[in-house]
Amino acid sequence: MRSLCCILLSIIVLTSCGTSLQLNRPSESTPASSQVRLLIFSRTTGFRHASIPDGIASIKQIAAAQQVAVDATEDASTFTPANLMRYRAIIFLSTSGNVLDAAQKAAFEGYIRAGGGYVGIHSASDTEYNWPWYGQLVGAYFKSHPSRLQLAHLTVEERHHPSTAKLPRSWTRVDEWYNFRSNPRSHVHVLLTIDETSYQGGEMNGDHPISWYHTFDGGRAWYTAMGHTSASFAEPLFRAHLWGGILYAAGLPS
């Protein structure tokens, strides 16, 4: 009799635990993306791009359609360990100059090492030249650009990435085309290159990556050198490119 009571008691306990665990699971009817938050960081201490507000608005618009929440700030004090862990990806939108102090840098490094995501847009590569870890994260530092906007031809090198899947193999558009202090190809996956014969001012000796991604120090990093103009953020193909990069960095399905 005692054995029977023990068996019945075990069944009751297991059933109760199973019910409790089930109640604590997210509802299957709730989109996973509704739990996702992104942070746009656009502080500048160097050149400031007039396109920043349009970039913020564009990302927020795309994200809202996917039920993804977006916060935007230029307040570096938000870079604390606890606050950064609220976000699936941190987007450096045309940042420039030195934007974080030592404690904020440490918090961001810890966030990436914990598996966080980084998105760098345009002059994110013109940021924190004296922070070698950041230089490795972004992939390459900005060096120079031609004196004017130009039409140029881009080639998709990797078509099966979320940020290039919707692009034509050959893509022609207008932007401010960056040259970099080094070629990142040896340590990143190059997504797009620019044909230096299609415009004036290219200085990468014919191998000119313009967008790439890689895993770094435990996290995911994606960068595009494009996005100088406000018009960029209204272009359907550029928006698809940008959102695909954000999905990659945030570890979200495309």
Topology:
Blueprint: H1 2-24, E1 37-41, H2 52-65, E2 69-73, H3 81-84, E3 89-93, H4 102-113, E4 117-121, H5 132-138, E5 142-144, E6 150-156, E7 170-175, E8 179-180, E9 189-194, E10 209-216, E11 219-224, H6 236-250
Parallel strand pairs: 1-2, 1-3, 3-4, 4-11
Antiparallel strand pairs: 5-8, 6-7, 6-9, 9-10, 10-11
Task: Explain what this protein looks like in three dimensions.
This is Crp/FNR family transcriptional regulator. With 254 residues, the protein is of the alpha/beta class. The chain has a single domain, classed as Class I glutamine amidotransferase (GATase) domain (Rossmann fold, 3-Layer(aba) Sandwich). The protein is built from six helices and eleven strands. Helix 2 links the parallel strand 1 and strand 2.
The CATH homologous superfamily: Class I glutamine amidotransferase (GATase) domain
Morphology: globular
Q: Output the CATH class name.
A: Alpha Beta
Which value, in Å, is the CA radius of gyration?
22 Å
Strand elements, count: 11
Largest sheet: 9 strands, mixed
Question: What is the structure about, briefly put?
Answer:
The protein has 254 residues and is α/β, with parallel strands linked by helices.
Keywords:
single chain, 254 residues, Rossmann fold, nine-stranded mixed β-sheet, two-stranded antiparallel ribbon, 11 strands, globular, disordered N terminus
